[in-house]
Design brief:
alpha/beta; Rossmann fold; 2 domains; three-stranded antiparallel β-sheet; elongated; binds guanosine-5'-diphosphate; binds magnesium ion; cell membrane; nucleotide-binding
Length: 380
């Protein structure tokens, strides 16, 4: 639970946006009802792949009590003879006697609002439609509370994310070469520092190659991370050929009997062809030392770029043989939903998530925890 609350805390911007949105949707058009037996989300037979919204609502629900929160489009008429204050008192008392909560009938209007909310949370249109269709499956016309909607949404999000939640595979091959790619500023260097620290703590012998020779500052930054993690960083002068550095680093890693070599790369060159050529050359050259390298190509993505992360995956899959993703900066963004869209669209493994700038701010990706944190679901 401790980790859960930490993650939820760190993802608070994403979760609070979704959470507030879900509450607003239920309150808008919902009605206060005595707390009945909860409609526990049932496991469904098969996820419906096509976002098909079900038949028309069977019976329109009459509004019996005024909503305590003014519903925007259709304010419920106040009860005729009861004065305001008494009505309020009455509601308070009845609330005390029998617990009540706001529930809303799951209908087309509500589904549309849910779709909009998920799209606004960066899940992307296709994923938002699929997720809401699955939420509605078998539940159309039921009255749901905010908590139940959160549970349903978390269940659907976890279902999409489950197949991609995989730690970075570790192979018997030594040294295992990990090439780290991604646009400038996405968090490659920071992630290498964090990963190096984690692997070192796990007893692995790690070497880092500062392959972003484009900027002197990038090399210094990596040296700082290497010092923190207690891992050697091999460098080359600014502007020198990163492929020859990678070659030297792999040779040295072999000689030293290292378990892992992590190669940092530049994310910004003059144009895409330059970047492609640089990455291709690194791969070509390290294959002269080990023709099975690189064993992992990690694409680092910045969650704050939202939907742009999707096009970065497209681009880098064409530049390099991306084997897995790390999503950084999930702290402090309201765009965490993009991870759901990525999982749904590409199915690439998500190895870890960055939740801060400190060395231990890299968490394994856990779909249930992520789904709960994203939707603001409290653990029960
Ligand atoms: N809040 C937060 N900041 C991060 C995270 N990962 C990286 N950063 C910051 O993002 C900026 C760019 O990171 P850097 O590793 O230099 O990106 P690179 O250009 O891809 O190597 C730095 O200021 C990092 O401290 C993260 O998970 N959360
Ligand atoms: Mg860098």
């Amino acid at each position: 639970m401790a980790f859960f609350s930490k993650l939820k805390d760190k993802l608070f911007k994403s979760s609070s946006r979704l959470e507030q949105g879900l509450e607003a949707i239920v309150e808008d058009g919902g009605e206060e009802t005595p707390t009945p037996d909860p409609v526990i989300p049932e496991p469904e037979p098969e996820p419906q792949p096509v976002p098909e919204v079900p038949e028309p609502s069977p019976v329109p629900q009459p509004v019996e009590t005024p909503s305590p929160i003014p519903a925007d489009p259709t304010p419920a008429p106040p009860p005729p003879e009861v004065p305001e204050a008494k009505g309020l008192l009455g509601r308070l008392f009845s609330r005390g006697d029998a617990p009540s909560e706001i529930r809303r009938t799951l209908d087309d209007d509500m589904l549309e609002q849910l779709e909009e909310l998920l799209i606004a949370s960066d899940m992307g249109v296709d994923t938002a439609l699929r997720v809401t269709a699955n939420m509605a499956e078998g539940r159309y016309g039921r009255k749901l509370s905010t908590q139940e909607i959160k549970q349903l949404l978390a269940q659907e999000v976890a279902r999409v994310m489950d197949p991609v939640a995989k730690p970075m595979p570790i192979y018997a091959k030594r040294p295992q070469v990990v090439l780290v790619v991604g646009v400038n500023g996405s968090g490659k260097t920071t992630t290498i520092g964090k990963l190096a620290s984690q692997f070192k703590s796990a007893g692995k012998k790690v070497v880092i190659a500062a392959g972003d020779t484009f900027r002197a500052a990038a090399v210094e930054q990596l040296q700082v991370w290497g010092d923190r993690a207690g891992v050697p960083v091999l460098t080359a002068p600014e502007g020198s050929d990163p492929a020859s550095l990678a070659f030297d680093a792999l040779t040295r890693a072999q000689e030293d009997g290292a378990d892992l070599l992590m190669i940092d790369t530049a994310g910004r060159l003059q144009n895409r062809a330059d970047l492609m050529e640089e990455l291709a050359k690194i791969v070509r050259v390290i294959r002269k030392v080990d023709d099975t390298a690189p064993h992992n190509t990690l694409l680092v993505l910045d969650a704050t770029t939202g939907q742009n992360a999707l096009s970065q995956v497209e681009t880098f899959r064409n530049l390099a043989d991306v084997s897995g993703l790390v999503m950084t900066k999930l702290d402090g963004t309201a765009k965490g939903g993009v991870l759901v869209a990525l999982a749904d669209k590409f199915g690439l493994p998500i190895h870890a998530i960055g939740v801060g700038e400190q060395i231990d701010d890299l968490a394994p990706f856990d779909p249930e925890e992520f789904a709960a944190a994203l939707t603001g679901l409290e653990p029960t």
